[in-house]
Amino acid sequence: MRLRSALASHAPTAQEIGRAATLALHDELALSPKPGLVTPTDRGSHDDMDAHTFMRSLFALRGYFVRIAELGAAGAPFEALEQCGIAAEARMLAATGGINTHRGSIFMLGLLCASAGALAAQGCRPTPALLRQTLATCWGDALSVRALRPSKLPGGMAASRLGLRSASAEAALGFPTLFETAEPALRHARRRGLPTAQAHLDTLFAVISVLDDSNLAHRGGLEGLHFAQAAARDFLAAGGAAAPKGLQTSAAIGKEFVRRRLSPGGAADTLAAACWLERMG
Ligand SMILES: CC(C)(COP(=O)(O)OP(=O)(O)OC[C@H]1O[C@@H](n2cnc3c(N)ncnc32)[C@H](O[C@H]2O[C@H](COP(=O)(O)OP(=O)(O)OP(=O)(O)O)[C@@H](O)[C@H]2O)[C@@H]1O)[C@@H](O)C(=O)NCCC(=O)NCCS
Ligand SMILES: Nc1ncnc2[nH]cnc12
Fold first, then answer.
1. Is any atom of ligand 1 closer than 6 Å to the C-beta of 155?
2. 86-140: per-residue pLDDT in tens?
3. Are the beta carbons of 233 and 224 closer than 8 angstroms?
4. Which residue from 78, 192, 242, 248 lies 20 to 30 Å from 4 (Cα-Cα)?
């Protein structure tokens, strides 16, 4: 077998899996402009964090993603993943001075890295279909039980109060928004030949248009969530980032998000997870 095809077909190591997660978090942070979210030049709807906060956070998490991939490869139970995730949250909070930058990504990307580790232990590459199947097979029951537990987080409590699908519920269903909306949107944008920033922006808006983002619900209630979802649908219906006035329209939506104090943190995490899937491809 030629070296190139052999390298292309090898299962990734825990180091490669974890490194891709750290790079994917940077892919998301680097996207600019982004509606209501932190970018290298803008705090969006946040007074308590900026790009430096996120950089300190993602550096603090680089060992976590490798470790949780190793746990997945070792067939660890959910409780071990949970303890690893909680320890990572503590390191995130220590690095950010107590600011919650990546709690959602610690959860979503952590579970994806664990699934990729479990697949690699079988010599398999982490395709979207195999990742979703592995997540359900290895930890689906525990995730379903977790989703029934009342949330202690502002977003999760808002999601529960408003009858929305929280991050835990999304995980228990095998991250449908990631695998059925974000990954296809990014793949389609690449096939259209869009440059990376436009491909990522269209993917982010595709996620905002369908996700029960508990950050939006916590900050703006159902009205705020539905406003954001409708704005995202209209943006994509008008041609998205590649439309003649795409970037101006995106900036105008961002201005209105900031006026309403809206921040789609869950959509940002889902974009990062889609970037990770692409890097693992
Ligand atoms: C695992 C948990 C985190 C799940 O708890 P819960 O189900 O209650 O989750 P949510 O509150 O619904 O969401 C938690 C974070 O996940 C992101 N998110 C939001 N909606 C969704 C969604 N529908 N699907 C997927 N992910 C979603 C979001 O995280 C991002 O936003 C945060 C930053 O934005 P900001 O507005 O600043 O957020 P806050 O600080 O909360 O608001 P302000 O005070 O500033 O106004 C940041 O976290 C981003 O990542 C949601 O915030 C929980 O059970 C848990 O912590 N478990 C322990 C760890 C564990 O079990 N790990 C398992 C193995 S890895
Ligand atoms: N860039 C960002 N801005 C605000 N919240 C986020 N959560 C994840 N990424 C984020």
1. yes
2. 999 999 999 999 999 999 999 999 999 999 999 999 999 999 999 999 999 999 9
3. no
4. 192
Q: Is the Cβ atom of 134 under 6 angstroms away from ligand 2?
A: no
Cβ of 18 closer than 6 Å to ligand 1, yes or no, is no
Q: Yes or no: say if 59 and 88 are a contact pair by the CB < 8 Å rule.
A: no
pLDDT at 222 > cutoff 90: yes
Residue to probe by mutation, ligand 2, list 41, 263, 271, most atoms within 8 Å of CB: 263
What distance in Å separates the CA atoms of residue 199 and residue 62, rounded to the nearest whole number? 25
- Ligand 1 centroid to Cα of residue 76, in Å, is 23
Evaluate: CB of 269 within 6 angstroms of ligand 2: yes
Q: Does residue 36's CB lie within 6 angstroms of at least one atom of ligand 2?
A: no
Whether the ipTM is more than 0.90: the answer is yes
d(CA 61, CA 29): 14
Spatial distance between the Cα atoms of 63 and 191, rounded to a whole number of angstroms: 33
Structural domain boundaries in the chain: 2-280
- Among all ligands shown, which has an atom nearest to the Cα of 215? 1
Angle at 22 between CA 16 and CA 25, to 5 degrees: 140
Q: Could you tell me the pTM of the whole model?
A: 0.96
